[in-house]
Amino acid sequence: MSETRVVKLRTVGGSTTSSTRSSTPTPTQSSTTYLMDPLGAALEGTDPLSQLANQQKLDPLSAMAAESWVEPVEGKRGKENVTTSVAMDDGLRESWSSRKAGILCKFTTSEKLSIVTSFLSGGEKVVVKAQSSMVDKVRTRLEQLDDFEDGSVRQMLDLSQQEYVGRIEQLNTELVQAWHQDQRVKALKIAIQCSKLLVDTSVIQFYPSKFVLITDILDIFGKLVYERLRTKSDYYAPGSKVPTCLPENFTADMVPESAKETCRNWFYKIASIRELVPRLYVEMAILKSYSFLTSGEFSQALLRLTKMIRGIGDPLVAVYARCYLCRVGLSINSSDRVYLRENFYDFLATYTQLFSPSIRLDLSLQKVDLSTYLTLYTPALDYILQSVAHEATEKTLAEILDRCKQKCNSALLFNTIMAAFKPAYIAARATQFVELLTSCDDEGFPKYLLFRTLGLCLTLADPPTEHCLQILNDVWKIVSKLNDPAQYISCAEVWVQYAAKHLSTREVNTFLGDIINHMSGGRAYENHYASLQTVMERVLAHANDFETLLTMDKFLPMLDIFQKESVKVEVCKSIMLHYTKTYQYQTTNDPVITNALMFICRVMHDSVNALTVEDEKRQIGNLICSFVKRVDFGRDFEQQLSFFVEARASFTNLDVIHAQLVQSVNRLAVETRCIVKGHHTRKTASFVHACAAYCYITIPSITSVLMRLELYLLSGQVALLNQCLGQADACLKAALNLISDVPKMIEVDGKHRSSEPYIVSYICNFLSTLLIVPDSPEQGVLYLTKGLLNVIQNYSWDHQSNARSTVYLQVLDMLSAASQESYPYHIDMVDSNDVLYGSDPKFIAELNRMCSVVVEEILNHLKYLGANEHYQKQSSLALELLIRIAVKADLSKPDLATLALNLWNLAQKHGCMDIKLAVRTTEYLKKKFSGSNEDVHADFISRLKIKSHGKQ
């Protein structure tokens, strides 16, 4: 191309290149002379630019400018989905979109970066002017490109990584804005300048992240071009005269010639880019647009671009260019996959360049070691090989392995192959891979990573069963010789899963012993707790027989290697979680297993202190309780009780464990009673007395008042069931003394609520037990009931509520039942007060006296409610008391009848009485006294009149 200037551009790396062409000044700007450039001469005129230029009267730039680039911006259809990169490879095992975040996080740098651009602060600002003619349009486009080449490009130095990323994002925004502002040339120039940044390897460890950032912009540019061409293509459906946009799955024959011409012009302009790397990247970015020209162009273009990448001298730049080509190729759904394999084979052909003196010198200048340099290739190489391996057969794997052995026999490549192909293919050739990995060239690439990757494959797919043990032996001959603990444990945490999955417990035990030996030296375990924890997790996950696992002589020593308490507790929790899941409905009494689990639970328990959060306490407590419930010695009840005694001594800090122990001992006492069918012998009687004593001693150590209340009542009931009257009395007395300690507010479902409803419910349950508890000859009549009345009297009730009176009403019910000749329920082998007193007049008189006291208390509360105008509560309480007097008292006594009528009148005095309940009450009383001949009853019924103003 003839030029009138010497163009000097400072490249990204900082070097200056000059491009000088011998040219003859043209008489006018409209005439242009084409000469063969050196690249065209070398290719004997076969480059795309020369061929297409000879076919056109206008040069590519003029043709592109002549195409209506300055038309109004398209509608929403041409703009959608342009600000995010396109997911091109959803069919792969790991798509590119899922890799990008990992690359950006891993490949970082603290070095200063530089960027060359003309579109950020300090660069050129393109101003679009209205052109009146096609010639003006062409002239303006040429001037813009001339400005781009002439000196507006500026270099920004000493950028931090964050600043560099910010500049790249700014370029991305500028490109999209320029496109939608109808500045197509500016958008193309930004894409070209971004592509040029991929030549720079001055901060080599950041190159993979730079590739991700730049190719995201190129993806957007390619999407913009494609959508632009698609929306400009007016398509007439068969039988329709209304133009529409091309459908998603259009074919080339549906594209109008004008759109094809625009598409060609895009490729013409890109072919005119002088530098190889930006020309390649920009063409790859819009490669999908070939679908507007012909459906058969993709295969040729992909192979042509594959061969062009061979011209890139830097192997790192070349491999990422190949990666981008493979990614773009997969996005166009081309059925031809030859180019994928060709790209990988081209990398194999140039693999020796990675170790060339020039590369080593550059790495030395940047102070980057060879192993770090090789890791820079893994993202691109992994993607290329996964593209090749996608839906490939085992024959493809065999072919690639042969090529690798012939060309380079490299550890890096073998590692990538194992990561790319299906684990089943690798597992089927496991012994072959062990031989390859043992003998491969591992310069710059640690060999332990190879065996780690192989182990990962073999955990996902099963090798031949007959080779499982041999594979582990061959691998471990090499891994066990690793002196670096980090490298050793990196392999061990993978291969221990292989051993647990494919081999017996004996091999796993040997494996754990080897880990202990390697990690104990120099206290290496302190730096690798996470990996050691992973080892334990994987052993537990694949343990078929958990009991055998616990009896291994290396299992608990492996647990002892965790010296850090927090980590050790987490491991113990994992063990117990697996145990409870494995033996959800099974029990054990094996002393070795029981002692092992007791040791593990003790480690968890001893970690609890005043600073431990409640959720942690709850989790540890539940795990230990699960263990306690699974220890079962069958009919050996004494051994079972001894275990509970030992557990109580071991776990002293958690209420939930003590509560579980009390429940378990009570259950043990009930089972004993069931076996002897209630007829205790001297031995069983002593045993159930011991159980009751255990509960009575253990409950006070629980800090929760409510939990102690419940357990005292339950233990008293169990003791009563086993005829342990003294222990039952002691538990019930302790419960009575504890009622006053109940806090006024308790937490229910995360909210603080009054405790009075709980107290009322608890006392009702307590009263039902007191009915059948026989009086002690030494204590007097109903001494426990009297004690309860004293507690009720002294408790600080809320005067605004009816809780206290509700309890008194329940006491009346209990005293009424206690006056019967035979109680409604009994406990076998226990004589209640109905048997002891036989309705003795003195006993009945005492009951009446107690009832009078209780009624007096209720009447006092009724006066209080009336004085404070709580008429609704007063009416309800009066009616409740009336019902009890009418149903259970002797109304033939004038005093009681008068009291009942007064309560009736009080209930409806203020119009607050529940009419429905009152009607049911009168109907019940009429039915009850219908057969009575006493006039007092009839008179009483006749006086129960309901006033009309009562509440419905």
TrEMBL record:
It is found in: Endosome. Its main location: other. Keywords: Endosome, Protein transport, Transport. It comes from Thrips palmi. Transmembrane segments: none annotated. GO terms for biological process: endocytic recycling; protein transport. Belongs to the VPS35L family. It comes from the Eukaryota. Residues 15-31 have a biased composition (Low complexity). GO terms for cellular component: endosome. Residues 1-31 are annotated as: Disordered. InterPro entries: VPS35L (IPR029705). This is VPS35 endosomal protein sorting factor-like isoform X2.
